[in-house]
Structures are given as structure tokens and as C-alpha cells.
Amino acid sequence: QAHVAQSGGGTVQPGGSLTLSCVVSGVPSGLNCYGWFRQVPGKEREGIAIIYGIWDSRWYADSVAGRFAISRDDAKNTVSLQMHSLQADDTAMYYCAADPGDGYCDTGRPFDYWGQGIQVTVSS
Question: What does the pLDDT read at residue 27?
Fold first, then answer.
């Protein structure tokens, strides 16, 4: 049975950095696409980063482009999100997602696997 484990959240001061990690285990096949999403209470979930395909194609939301970086380790079914220059607006519950389906991937894909969420708080 698949299990998705997230780690790395916490509280950081404005301007600081954090790295989130996500490990997907117990899946029957390789994972083509990973995504990171975040949600603030009362607002819709926001897709912020995607990585997919054999060439590691990447996409970022405008809100995080230039500050966040997504990467993956296929041998370990792991995806990471390096977050820099964090701002108060980055405070949210962060979720990773993974999907084995081939081809193009974006935040609208019905991902098969989801993490439980991890809190990131940016506060002085």
C-alpha cells in the first residue's frame, strides 16, 4: 500500500529558507510527475511547483518563481522543495503529490498519491 511521508516544515523568520521533502513508498511503478501545493484556511489549494518527465521539466507559480526550487530523486521516489526568501504570504499547509502517469503534467492532474500536509509558518 502506498505511503507518502512529508518532512521539513516548521517556523522560519521572513527572508529565511526551508526545505520540504516527500518520500513515496509502496507504489507499484515509477513516478513520472511530482507536485507541491499549498493551502491557507479559507482559500483554495494552490499549485506552486511541478516536475515531470525524463527531462525534469519544471513549472512554478508566479508567486514562488525565482524563490523556490523543486527537485527529485527517482531512485528514492523522493521530491524536495527548496524555499528561499520566505515571506509571510508563504505561510500555509504544504502538500506533495505524485503520479505515475506518463506525459505532460500540471497542477490539474488527478494525482494518485498525496502527502498528509506539513505546516510552514513565516513569522518574526
Answer: 87
